[in-house]
Design goal:
By secondary structure, this protein is mostly helical. Bound molecules: heme-as.
Length: 561
């Protein structure tokens, strides 16, 4: 379909800005592996400190890139499936709020005034502009959601008997989760962090702030994941040459995410005092529940791929795998998605032991955790984002892909890098290697009395994986920017690959409307979080003054920068 110049420009800017910043994010990813392997035994490089780099890496890759992409991709899917463009002035305001917020936070991080990591846990204190930047980014991302929800209700009025396209359900589910979970972090930032960072309040309630953060923080990971799931359900079967096995199971999966994505945040706080076993057990059980829609997705997609292979005449139990278009440069999105899915088998499975209250004690705050989450967020999420960003840029600018044969190899290179990198981290984590630590200045420095020779092979493995990921990342930049700046040769358009469904399933109204699911979502949220917040209020610990990351002595308000 054709789209207006304004919408085209908005989507392109929303892809260009985060991908440009990603160059800084990926550089700091490589630096992490170098510091941690003990190849550098110092606290900073090029005047950027270890924790400053880790903050830039986490914030750019996990917050900025994912939020901008979710909005850009949301504009594309809603426009394509509802055959109507969003409100353009609102979309522009949203884009400028997000860009301004990102620049404010980037200044705070680059100037060394916000080395608080992407979780910005107090008592670590950042400059107020870092927090304000985060608020603008979030508010900017809310605006299109309100508009899309309005467009959907208008569309439904005239199409009440037609099934809502699954991409529209997925986008609205995702942004509903996002809107609800960001309310908690907005409270944390506006009521607790900014007044404290400005010096208006002297101390802060750390447990309350962490709980509000994780109310947001775990839902955040599904906000990252669901755009990839939309691609898997609506595009992957088509790209493979088949059909989606069950559309209904896909809808059930999306609505299950709506109910269960938020009320599981306490599984990040199993080690926190102030919250008792009962609440931790309940949210731990709900965490096992949130794995179910992903298990359903695994079977649904595998069946869809098997059908695709069989259509091409495969033989035997697993012969269909050989028939899939793994290295077809014209279907490069398939390669990005299948590599993401292969990584997610391991990323998902390593999430399950994390969710167990007992096993969590073994891996909490160890390198096992970044091992787990690089196979999720740097797996299906990142690969779907970079594959789709190249795809949208090529279509919206009317360009051919630059280096198509390299483009189709990038996801495999990245996947191999992540598998090696995460193996090193998880192995290290299981023998006690801590996360978020500059090991080069201590445990991986042979002249230190803390030296741990048993962590040499694990950190070297992570370094080897990190280098491969870095090379894949550089090739992606060449393909993305090469495509962007080359001469226009094609028509400008927006055409998303659209899968048919294998079964002709009747429309079941329950799985085609939001109200009942929103009610269940609210009930489960109250059951999970009222007791947690009550306990924090009841078991209140002394509040904390502000700290900076490299100093165990609190910052007094008189010297806050
Ligand atoms: Fe997690 C910590 C539990 C999923 C990200 N997680 C994190 C952190 C991040 C993160 C960033 O319970 C660290 C936060 C921090 O900084 O402290 N996680 C889970 C569970 C799941 C899970 C149970 N996580 C994710 C996803 C993420 C993500 C998705 C990002 C996108 N996670 C935890 C827990 C912690 C945690 C604890 C806290 C630990 C602590 O102590 O701090 C589940 O949702 C996973 C379910 C997934 C599956 C996999 C399904 C497989 C599929 C692939 C099929 C493949 C096919 C291909 C079809 C069951 C869908 C076939 C191939 C052919 C070739 C044909």
């Amino acid at each position: 379909m054709e789209i207006s110049r304004s919408l085209k420009r908005i989507i392109i800017i929303e892809l260009f800005v985060p991908v440009s910043l990603l160059t800084i994010g990926i550089y700091h990813g490589l630096m992490q592996t170098i510091y941690r392997a003990g190849m550098l035994q110092q606290a900073s490089v090029l005047k950027l400190d270890y924790y400053q780099g880790l903050t830039l890496h986490g914030v750019i890759n996990a917050i900025v890139l994912t939020t901008f992409f979710a909005v850009a991709f949301g504009h594309a899917t809603i426009t394509y499936y509802l055959k109507k463009e969003p409100n353009l002035p609102l979309a522009k305001i949203s884009m400028w709020l997000m860009v301004t917020g990102t620049l404010m936070a980037a200044w705070a991080m680059l100037s060394g005034n916000a080395s608080v990591l992407y979780t910005f846990y107090p008592p670590l204190k950042a400059h107020p502009l870092f927090y304000l930047g985060a608020v603008l980014l979030i508010v900017g991302s809310w605006l299109p959601f309100f508009d899309w929800a309005h467009m959907y209700t208008q569309w439904k009025k005239v199409n009440s008997e037609i099934k809502t396209p699954i991409a529209v359900i997925g986008t609205l589910v995702n942004f509903t989760i996002w809107f609800v979970c960001t309310l908690a972090v907005a409270y944390e930032v506006l009521v607790l962090l900014i007044p404290w960072s400005m010096g208006w309040t002297k101390t802060i309630d750390v447990t309350l702030a962490r709980t509000l953060f994780w109310f947001f923080g775990h839902a955040l990971v599904y906000f990252w994941l669901l755009p990839a799931y939309i691609m898997f359900y609506t595009m992957l079967p088509k790209l493979a040459g088949g059909k989606l096995y069950s559309d209904l199971a896909g809808r059930i999966a999306f609505f299950s995410f709506l109910i269960l994505s938020i009320p599981v945040g306490v599984h990040h706080q199993f080690a926190d005092p102030g919250i008792t076993r009962g609440v931790k057990m309940f949210q731990g059980l709900l965490t096992f529940g949130i794995a179910i829609p992903s298990f359903m997705t695994a079977f649904n997609l595998a069946a869809s791929l098997e059908y695709a292979g069989k259509q091409k005449g495969s033989k035997g139990l697993f012969g269909w795998i050989k028939k899939l278009p793994f290295f077809d440069p014209d279907k490069y999105l398939f390669a990005y998605m299948i590599c993401g899915l292969i990584l997610f088998i391991f990323g998902g499975l390593t999430g399950i032991p994390n969710a167990s209250y007992q096993l969590n004690n073994v891996i909490h705050n160890t390198a096992f955790l970044p091992g787990h989450f690089h196979m999720t967020v740097a797996g299906p999420v990142f690969l779907a984002i970079i594959g789709m960003s190249t795809f949208l840029i090529a279509q919206l600018k009317g360009k051919k892909i630059f280096w198509p044969k390299i483009n189709v190899v990038i996801p495999y290179l990245w996947m191999i890098g992540v598998l090696i990198f995460s193996t090193g981290l998880m192995w290290g984590g299981l023998i006690g290697e801590p996360r978020r630590t500059n090991l080069g200045t201590s445990y991986l420095n042979p002249s230190s009395e803390l030296f741990r020779p048993d962590w040499v092979p694990t950190t070297m493995l992570a370094l080897a994986g990190g280098v491969i990921m870095f090379v894949a990342g550089m090739l992606y930049f060449i393909v993305f920017f090469g495509t962007l700046i080359r001469k226009r040769t094609e028509d400008v358009k927006l055409e998303l690959p659209e899968s048919e469904t294998y079964h002709i399933e009747k429309r079941i109204p329950l799985f085609d409307k939001f109200k009942p699911w929103l009610v269940i979502m609210a009930v489960v949220l109250l059951l999970a979080y009222v007791p947690a917040l009550w306990e924090i209020y009841k078991n209140n610990a002394p509040k904390a003054p502000p700290f900076e990351i490299n100093n165990p002595v609190p910052v007094t308000t008189s010297v806050i920068k």
